[in-house]
């Protein structure tokens, strides 16, 4: 008689229905998320940044250069650090030098919203007028107004003064958002009180094609209300522009009304940059070689960025905190428009296709195959997708979402896992209910819970144990805020875990401030001991590098032998932990570091196995010790490769210390006391000598 048959078909159907309903709900949820207005901002802060990181820096176009104003150039020219206070004759001289160098277009990212002395303004006006190739910035003054229902932002356009704007080839604003934290996109048009106007990069593109556009407008008998208002030109001539292949680049850029995503080239100064003092002082032949027939941007760009003036965080913000300047971002946007290399954001249909494909492909794998095989297949598919996304981004500037499919796959696995967990729990309950007809209640419960006997899963292994412990942790915990202590330990443990895992070790246990790491094999070997010791050395080195060695002074112990490794616990809780005398002994050795003022102690077994290694000369025998609740004593060796210089014995005292240890072990306490005192007279920081001297004096 099959006691588990009753209701089996109905149960399986119910599970299938639960999974189908869960997946449909998940599909609806992710479709809503992917089509919601905040999704791109979310993906921009993650997936887009990952794509840039994977791609790395790329060569910037050679036809765009930057002339940088910065603190170093100001000092070289004997000018104030505050560049807005510079005489406009300096800018006039730069424009004149660039025109003499046959620059094709000059884009000035400096606002000239107020008049100065006639002499200064006349000089700059003449320089702008001479080349008819200067694009100026329109300054935007942002104000917040409280309407009673909330705050609204109002931007007031403050163009350059008329005497500069009139001879310029064009003017336009250029603003970048301070939110999100990293700048990824920009608008090509600004909506101002006087209408919609083109931003500075697009105005510069207009200036490159101004003559061709004027001819088209004339040929098509169009009327442009303002020949410098790009928005009006595009509205009037968008249909006609598309018919001219030579203007296809301009047409595509000009009709890109939504925000464009910036294709950054790399960190600061990826675009060829010359400081302003070089431009003013270099021979004309050199400036011609640098700027001839190129678009030149002039603006603030300081690699030091001590004041972070006009600088924005991007994916290429350097580790030392150097952001990209506004002028370099403007030049990057202009270059993207010229060669049509700006990032193409994911289209709606593409996001829908990714949601459906990712959900059902991962669901099929999860339901079709065993967990480990399913996860392997899903990781492989995601890896292929990542490769394709990186290739499309690098070659065609197409941005495929990365975070979206990853979250979909994870959520799908969680949902199916929860359904299966309920399935398993229900199955155990059904088994218990069935066998209650044949066994007493408690026996039925125990049998239903013992489908897999976890208690018997363990094995006997040989290996090396590395125990670490923080000295003074109890006092630190008493005097530190719990959240601050938690953050401190979250900086501490990654250092330990990384070095252990990189050397083939496994983490046996972590309790509070103590870690137990294991290296296992058929027998305890020299290579195991070397790996464990090198892990301890690397941990100490990195704690010092992270400036944690003083706050969290750590001691280590090394011992080896045979122990049991497996599941430890009961039905409600299991841990995969080592058990045995070797583990217990290692935990007794480590506290001896406090008494001897050492950083690493090892047993005779480890010392003997390392006798032929490069570390052998750095070990020092420190005596034979009785351990708490241990029947036999242990010979311990201190590793001096991690000690501070002041704690080490000079060569001349090492034999004296060894003689003192021998005298102590031969119970010649008076002679030993005298010898330890002699060692401390010349090396007062030597911890083991101080320990023995105090021990002998206390006995006397």
What does this 3D model show about the protein?
The chain has three domains: 8-36 and 346-449; 64-198 and 260-339, no CATH class; 454-586 and 598-615, Alpha-Beta Plaits. Helix content is 50%, strand content 18%. The chain contains 26 helices and 22 strands. The strands form six sheets. Strands 15, 16, 17, 18, 19, 20, 21 and 22 form an eight-stranded mixed β-sheet that branches. A six-stranded parallel β-sheet has the order 6-3-2-12-1-11. It has a two-stranded antiparallel ribbon with strand order 4-5. Strand 8 and strand 9 form a beta hairpin. The model is unreliable at 1-11 and 450-457 (pLDDT under 50).
What is the count of β-strands? 22
Give the integer mean of the pLDDT values: 82
Stretches where pLDDT is under 50 for at least 5 consecutive residues are: 1-11, 450-457
Helix content: 40-55%
| N→C terminal distance | 82 Å
Form type: flat
Radius of gyration: 37 Å
Biggest pleated-sheet summary: 8 strands, mixed
Number of domains: 3
Instruction: Please work out how many helical segments DSSP would assign.
Output: 26
SSE class: alpha/beta
Proportion in β-strands? 15-25%
């Amino acid at each position: 008689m099959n006691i588990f048959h009753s209701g089996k078909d109905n149960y399986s159907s119910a599970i299938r229905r639960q999974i189908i309903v869960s997946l449909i709900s998940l599909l609806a949820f992710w479709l809503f998320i992917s089509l919601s207005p905040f999704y791109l901002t979310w993906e921009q802060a993650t997936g887009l940044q990952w794509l840039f990181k994977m791609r790395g820096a790329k060569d910037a176009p050679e036809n765009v250069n930057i002339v940088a104003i910065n603190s170093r150039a100001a000092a070289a020219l004997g000018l104030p650090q505050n560049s807005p206070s510079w005489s406009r004759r300096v800018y006039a001289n730069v424009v004149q030098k660039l025109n003499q160098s046959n620059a094709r277009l000059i884009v000035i990212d400096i606002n000239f919203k107020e008049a100065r002395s006639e002499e200064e303004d006349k000089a700059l006006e003449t320089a702008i007028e001479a080349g008819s190739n200067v694009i100026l910035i329109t300054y935007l003054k942002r104000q917040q107004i409280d309407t009673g229902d909330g705050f609204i932002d109002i931007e007031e356009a403050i163009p350059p003064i008329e005497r500069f704007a009139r001879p310029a080839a064009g003017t336009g604003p250029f603003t970048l958002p301070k939110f999100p934290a990293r700048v990824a996109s920009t608008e090509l048009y600004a909506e101002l009180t006087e209408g919609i106007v083109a931003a500075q990069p697009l105005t510069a593109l207009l200036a490159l094609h101004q003559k061709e556009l004027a001819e088209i407008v004339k040929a098509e008998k169009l009327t442009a209300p303002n020949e410098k208002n790009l928005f009006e030109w595009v509205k009037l001539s968008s249909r006609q522009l598309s018919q001219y292949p030579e203007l296809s680049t301009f047409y595509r850029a000009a009709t890109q009304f939504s925000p464009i995503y910036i294709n950054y080239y790399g960190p600061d100064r990826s675009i060829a940059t010359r400081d302003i003092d070089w431009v003013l002082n270099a021979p004309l032949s050199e400036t011609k070689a640098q700027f001839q027939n190129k678009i030149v941007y002039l603006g603030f760009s300081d690699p030091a960025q001590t004041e972070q003036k006009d600088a924005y965080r991007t994916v290429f913000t350097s580790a030392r905190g150097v952001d990209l300047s506004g002028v370099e971002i403007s030049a990057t946007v202009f270059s993207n428009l010229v060669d049509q290399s700006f990032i193409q954001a994911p289209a709606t249909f593409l996001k829908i296709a990714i949601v459906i494909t990712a959900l059902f492909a991962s669901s099929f794998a999860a339901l079709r195959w065993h967990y480990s095989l399913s996860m392997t297949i899903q990781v492989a598919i995601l890896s292929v997708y990542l490769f394709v996304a990186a290739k499309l981004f690098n070659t065609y500037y197409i941005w495929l979402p990365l975070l979206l499919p990853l979250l979909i796959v994870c959520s799908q696995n969680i949902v199916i896992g929860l359904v299966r967990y309920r399935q398993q729990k229900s199955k155990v309950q059904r088994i218990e209910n069935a066998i209650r007809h044949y066994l007493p209640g408690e026996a039925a419960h125990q049998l239903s819970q013992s489908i897999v006997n976890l208690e018997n899963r363990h094995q006997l292994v040989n290996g090396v144990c590395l125990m670490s412990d923080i000295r003074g942790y109890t006092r630190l915990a008493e005097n530190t805020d719990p959240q601050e202590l938690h953050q401190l330990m979250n900086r501490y443990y990654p250092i330990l875990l990384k070095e252990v895992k990189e050397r083939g070790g496994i983490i046996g246990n972590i309790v509070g401030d103590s870690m137990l790491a294991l290296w296992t094999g058929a027998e305890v070997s020299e290579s195991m001991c070397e790996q464990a010791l090198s892990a301890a050395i690397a941990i100490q080195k990195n704690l010092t590098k992270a400036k944690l060695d003083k706050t969290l002074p750590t001691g280590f112990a090394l011992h080896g032998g045979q122990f049991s490794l497996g599941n430890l616990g009961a039905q409600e809780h299991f841990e995969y932990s080592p058990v045995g005398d070797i583990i217990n002994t290692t935990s007794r050795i480590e506290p001896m570091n406090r008494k001897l003022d050492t950083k690493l102690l090892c047993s005779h077994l480890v010392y003997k196995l390392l006798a032929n290694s490069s570390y052998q000369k750095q070990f020092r025998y420190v005596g034979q010790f009785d351990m708490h609740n241990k029947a036999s004593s242990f010979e311990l060796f201190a590793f001096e490769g991690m000690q501070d210089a002041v704690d080490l014995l000079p060569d001349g005292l090492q034999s004296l210390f060894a003689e003192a240890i021998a005298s102590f072990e031969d119970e010649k306490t008076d002679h030993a006391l005298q010898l330890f005192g002699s060692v401390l007279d010349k090396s007062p920081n030597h911890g083991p000598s101080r320990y023995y001297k105090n021990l002998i004096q206390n006995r006397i």
